[in-house]
Design goal:
Helix content is 31%, strand content 23%. The chain starts with a helix and ends in a 15-residue tail after the last helix. The protein has 582 residues and is α/β, with parallel strands linked by helices. It has 17 helices and 26 strands. It has two domains: 440 residues, 3-Layer(aba) Sandwich (Rossmann fold); 100 residues, GMP Synthetase, Chain A, domain 3 (2-Layer Sandwich).
Length: 582
């Protein structure tokens, strides 16, 4: 039954349906998805001999992945894991990661993905909040676990090595890893055992299949670390399975004829974008994930791309920007590339243009959040040029835009995106207060993102509500300023924040990573004024060698703001020479 707000909501009529690609349904049927366990078992049976994962030159078939996952599930089950118990995984993209993930799900457990770059304090918070029975940790980060161990509520640690599940090749991979790791701190975790031991013991154990329901929890996906204390988004099997079905329905008619597919999986699987859009989707369709353990090592990433034929690529703006700048990117064969997708942060037009010139394929931008499994909107898969928008709501997804007062925003006006759909989480783990704050009175999830809708139903993200800068009563959106500055040929990367300003309440500050050392503040100010009105033009510019980024390469504005404000409490009026009196 529609609420009073919905009855007066023109977005409820889903005007974007008229812009759907041919063959894409308005809604997915419940029968099109079940649980992630059912999906995994079906794919292992249907695609047994196809490659499912590849890492460091070693391919793992669906049959081999199924065997390894079952061994892990049997060991966990034998050692006391009950349905609903949590298991944490703290690892980059290596061959063992998907086997552990599916092993936990087969055993009826809940996967808690942990960023391996976390400090011991961040790790303690997430582990103590989720209370996992077991913690799988990649060896290179085990020293962090050791430091946090006395203060964590967790049963047992299991050490994962880069060569695990690689057979004879794994011995070489581990030897190289040990050599590289000589400067990595040693560790000693009480009671820790190796993944190899689990696999060996699990092979001799009987696994009793667990009855997993669509309403059972599949993941606790922690979010909010860049804006406050991280909280766990509860993602049910039906949430994630529905999002996979929605995403496949959106692009199936366009890319299925070009398969079977191999996706360059540089996005970490512990992040929701890489987890769903790469790993889980490729498992569903019988494709192969080309796992990249360290995407920041561009030389190795490009070397891997040169050695392998791939049809799909997914990334964030900073990864695309770094690749098109690399001197060896022209040696990569992009002739088989069918689809390039981007999310996680706004894709800049200049980056998209350079990627299209390099590969012949546009970047297809989408939008979503950890709380929505994550995908909400995607551009049409048949576009030929970058649109600058985040696309149309995918099947069975209801979006609306709301004003700060909670009213429905008129078409063409800015408003906060609120959403309903089968991919939306039921709430935050053990945080009823945070769940209540995240929902509207009529049951929509509040994203905190500001957008407008074009006449054809395409959405454009304007910015995060909490990142908006208020200059003398006028709203300034950092994305818009960053986009303008990124067009300067001497700018490699840019981030814009708002800081207290004596004359106007707040003022924009731009952090610049220059492409050319000759770039000056005066040059940037003149360039900005060509496309930005005066109050949107940054009052201060700071040049950097690099910008702080999250685990997926998203620029961390909050970190920049905190650092800036520790040095300058209030930004004073700017001098005529372009410097600032601070």
């Amino acid at each position: 039954m529609m609420s009073q707000t919905e009855r007066h909501d023109p977005y409820a009529q889903r005007p974007w349906l008229a812009s759907y690609p041919e063959g894409v349904p308005a809604d997915i049927d419940d029968a099109e998805y079940s649980t992630l366990v059912d999906m995994f078992n079906a794919s292992v049976a249907a695609y047994a001999d196809r490659p499912a994962m590849q890492s460091f030159g070693v391919r793992q078939s669906f049959r081999e992945l199924g065997v390894a996952a079952t061994q892990i599930a049997a060991w966990l089950q034998t050692h006391g894991l009950s349905k609903g118990d949590r298991v944490a995984i703290m690892s980059p993209n290596v061959l063992a990661y998907p086997a552990i993930l599916f092993g936990v799900l087969l055993a009826g457990g809940v996967v808690v993905n942990v960023n391996p770059l976390y400090t011991h304090g961040e790790l303690e918070h997430q582990v103590n909040d989720s209370e996992p029975r077991f913690l799988f940790v990649f060896e290179n980060f085990a020293h962090t676990v050791q430091t946090a161990w006395p203060n964590m509520r967790v049963g047992q640690a299991i050490i994962v090595r880069p060569g695990d599940l690689m057979g004879a090749r794994g011995l070489l991979v581990n030897a190289v890893s040990r050599y590289i790791k000589r400067q990595t701190p040693s560790y000693a975790i009480p009671g820790a055992i190796d993944l190899k031991q689990i696999l060996r013991e699990g092979a001799a154990m009987r696994f009793a299949p667990v009855a997993v329901d669509r309403d059972d929890i599949a993941f606790l996906q922690y979010t909010g670390g860049t804006t406050g204390v991280a909280k766990g988004a509860v993602l049910l099997h039906r949430n994630v399975a529905a999002n996979i079905a929605q995403t496949w329905a959106w692009q199936r008619h366009h890319i299925e004829p070009m398969g079977p597919h191999t996706m360059v999986t540089a996005l970490p699987l512990y992040h929701i974008f890489g987890l769903t859009a790469c790993c889980l989707l490729l498992v569903k369709i019988g494709g192969c994930c080309l796992l990249i353990a360290n995407p920041r090592d561009l030389n190795n990433l490009i070397a891997t791309m040169r050695k392998n034929r791939f049809t799909l690529f997914s990334g964030v703006n900073t990864l695309y920007a770094a690749l098109v700048d690399h001197p060896d990117i022209g040696k990569v064969d992009f002739s088989a590339l069918a689809h390039s997708v981007s999310g996680g942060m706004s894709t800049q037009e200049v980056v998209a243009q350079r990627w299209k010139a390099l590969t012949g394929q546009p970047i297809i931008e989408g939008y979503g959040l950890s709380e929505t499994s994550p995908i909400l909107t995607v551009n049409r898969p048949d576009i030929t040029e970058f649109t600058g928008g985040v696309g149309y709501p995918i099947p069975s997804t209801q979006l609306s835009l709301r004003t700060p007062e909670g009213a429905v925003a008129a078409f063409g006006e800015r408003g906060e995106i609120v959403v309903k759909g089968p991919q939306v989480m039921p709430g935050y783990w053990r945080r009823q207060d945070e769940t209540a704050k995240a929902m509207t009175p009529d049951g929509y999830f509040r994203t905190g993102d500001v957008a407008i809708m074009e006449p054809d139903g395409l959405f454009r993200i304007v910015d995060r509500l909490k990142d908006m800068i208020l200059v003398s009563g006028f709203n300034v959106y950092p994305n818009e300023v960053e986009e303008a500055l990124s067009r300067h040929p001497k700018v490699r990367e840019v981030a814009v924040i708002g800081v207290p300003f004596a004359h106007s309440g707040e003022a924009p500050v731009a952090f610049i990573v220059p492409r050319d050392a000759s770039l000056t503040t005066q040059e940037l100010k003149a360039f900005a004024r060509e496309s930005l009105t005066n109050y949107k033009t940054p009052r201060f510019y700071e040049f950097r060698d690099a910008l702080p980024k999250s685990n997926v390469g998203k620029i961390l504005r909050r970190a920049l703001k905190e650092e800036f404000l520790t040095r300058h409490r209030v930004l004073a009026p700017q001098q005529e020479d372009g410097s600032a009196a601070l």
